[in-house]
Amino acid sequence: MPLADPAAPETPDPEALTPGTPPTGESLADLAYRRVEDLVVTMELAPGARVSEHGIAERIGVGRTPVREALQRLAGDGILVTRPRRGMRVREIDLATQLRVLEARRALEGTLVRRAALRRSPEQAARLRETAAAFRRMRDAPDPVPALRHDRRFVDLLLDSADNPFLASIIPLYALSRRFWLAHYARQVRFEPGAITDFHIRIGEAVAAGEEAEAGRLADAFLDHVEAFARFVGLDLAASS
Predict the structure, then answer these.
(1) Which of 115, 125, 124 is nearest to 216 (CA)?
(2) Which residue range forms the structural domain that includes residue 60?
(3) Cα-Cα-Cα-Cα dihedral of 97, 98, 102, 104, to 10°?
(4) Whether residue 219 is found in the same domain as residue 200
(5) SS3 letters for 9-78?
(6) For residue 120, which of 54, 84, 124, 144 is within the disulfide window of CB 3.0 to 4.6 Å?
(7) Calpha distance 39→21 (Å, rounded)
(8) Domain shared by 226 and 120, yes or no
(9) What is the C-alpha separation between 29 and 35, in angstroms, rounded?
(10) 37, 57, 90 — which closes off a domain?
């Protein structure tokens, strides 16, 4: 489902692209990576599902060579896993993985938002404010998928603003976190509705304003919240088993 927000940052919605046509500046392998990542995050490719070059190429309308490169990158990033005699599969969802993902995010996320606040251009600041406004409009929307896709755009904009390509290793960590959140969305509603969207709004506004210390503080508080939710999910699953 594409995000109906003309003011949103320009990273394209994977579902809105013409099959086989990458956006400006992206290769076909980049396009394939984004499309498969989106299928995994939205669980259109289910956890544990087997993934083949041929099947993915047919599904997303991209040739097998760029699909092969994209799948190798996704496996290297931990979104897909390869097992002997079982082929390539979508990584399963579990609490232990989510907690390790959050541990790794803590090493990167504060730096990402602080550097974005320090280095963002006036044009990027304007786009960050637009992004925060779009999050505010979708805060109470019944379908969480557009917000997940908008979050991918938000991360891309933070990375562009931070101007440090080595921070891009955070992209698959965000993807796995988004999928965990979507898988347990009903529990999020019981835990603290709207809190994650509120954090995105406040972080976006702080980065846009160049408030480096505040952006870092909010990122730390956000990760505390996300970890608390993950542990809440673990307790809830244990209680219901």
Answers:
(1) 115
(2) 14-90
(3) 20
(4) yes
(5) CCCCCHHHCCCCCCCCCCCHHHHHHHHHHHHHHCCCCCCCCEECHHHHHHHHCCCHHHHHHHHHHHHHCC
(6) 124
(7) 17
(8) yes
(9) 10
(10) 90
My answer on whether 129 and 229 are in the same domain is yes
DSSP per residue, 124-190: HHHHHHHHHHHHHHTTT-S--HHHHHHHHHHHHHHHHHHT-GGGGGGHHHHHHHHHHHHHTHHHHHH
- With beta carbons less than 8 A apart as the criterion, state whether 27 and 63 touch: no
Give me 97's structure tokens: 């993985």
Confidence class for position 24, pLDDT limits 50, 70, 90: low
Identify the CATH number of the domain in which residue 33 sits: 1.10.10.10
Distance CA 102, CA 100 (A): 5
Same domain, residue pair 233 and 123 = yes
Find out whether 131 and 153 touch, Cβ atoms under 8 Å. yes
- State pLDDT tens for residues 132-175: 999 999 988 889 999 999 999 999 999 999 999 999 999 999 99
User: How does residue 77 score in pLDDT terms, banded at 50, 70 and 90?
Assistant: very high
Residue 2 inside a domain? The answer is no
Does residue 233 sit within a domain?
A: yes
